[in-house]
Design brief:
The chain is of the alpha/beta class. It has a single domain (10-220), classed as Rossmann fold, CATH 3.40.50.300. Helix content is 33%, strand content 17%. The protein has a seven-stranded mixed β-sheet, sandwiched between helices. The longest helix has 17 residues, at 113-129. The chain is globular and about 45 Å long. Residues 1-15, 227-231 and 233-247 have low confidence and may be disordered.
Length: 247
């Protein structure tokens, strides 16, 4: 789904958007619903941001760091075992102006080939067909770079990207690299990103956290601060999700 370009007055609003506002917005994230199948996901009429990545790429840690919540996205002790799409709502209490979708990690070796293929199909179908999907955040361990599975995912979403879908590659665990290594992998990934954004990110050092939060805020509010935002009906009880993703 694409958004209209900001009007001429939006520039003044954007100048007021700082990391405090963006991080405060991310902190409002709360559990919305969980689904084992695409047809179980409720339709929403607000922007939706999907977080995807290989198992152990640091996806859950990144989500928890961005939202400043320790266990919003649960990192399973058995990566790859849990296969649910978890949705979280963003916005002040009682109002939702965006949805964050946490997709299961992919590529974990201990999962059977059939399970891998089935979930790769489910996730690709989600990324290709989900109408409310506005942006994709691909989490990648910079020590491994973009893997074959990552590149296949980027290729699969190419038509939607060309139609206006935003995407961001987040290079997690950047603190494990030297500055020269960071600069090198950043440059290489930008060349392979096909027009997408790329950011270095470290949950430990808080590197890139504010920058990613501001980018996501702007993608979900292309016309600046909304006067009002639509409410989204809670799909399930407010308890913990029955399926928890791995990071």
């Amino acid at each position: 789904m694409t958004h209209a370009s900001p009007d001429t007055n939006a520039g003044n609003t954007h100048s007021l958007i700082d990391s405090k506002l963006a991080m405060g917005w991310m902190h409002t994230a709360r559990f919305f619903t969980t689904a084992a199948q695409l047809n179980q996901l409720p339709p929403v009429d607000v922007p939706e941001i999907a977080f995807v990545g290989r198992s152990n790429a640091g996806k859950s840690t990144a989500i928890n760091t961005l939202t400043q919540q320790k266990q919003l996205a649960f990192a399973s002790k058995k990566p790859g075992r849990t296969q649910h799409i978890n949705l979280f709502s963003l916005g002040r209490q009682g109002v939702t102006d965006a949805i964050l979708a946490d997709l299961p990690g992919y590529g974990y070796a201990a999962v059977s080939r059939d399970d891998k293929q089935r979930w790769q199909r489910v996730m690709l179908n989600y990324l290709v067909s989900r109408e409310s999907l506005t942006a994709i955040v691909l989490l990648c361990d910079p020590r491994l770079g973009l893997t074959e599975l990552d590149e296949a995912l980027l290729e699969g979403i190419r038509p939607r990207v060309e139609a206006g879908l935003k995407f961001l590659i987040v290079l997690t665990k950047a603190d494990k690299l030297t500055r020269s290594e960071q600069a090198k992998i950043l440059s290489i990934t930008k060349l392979n990103a096909g027009g997408g954004e790329v950011r270095l990110f470290s949950a430990l050092k808080k590197q890139g956290v504010d920058d990613v939060a501001k980018l996501l805020w702007e993608w979900c509010h292309p016309e600046g601060l909304p006067a009002t935002a639509p409410a989204v009906t809670q799909a399930t009880d407010s308890g913990a999700p029955s399926g928890k993703n791995q990071g």
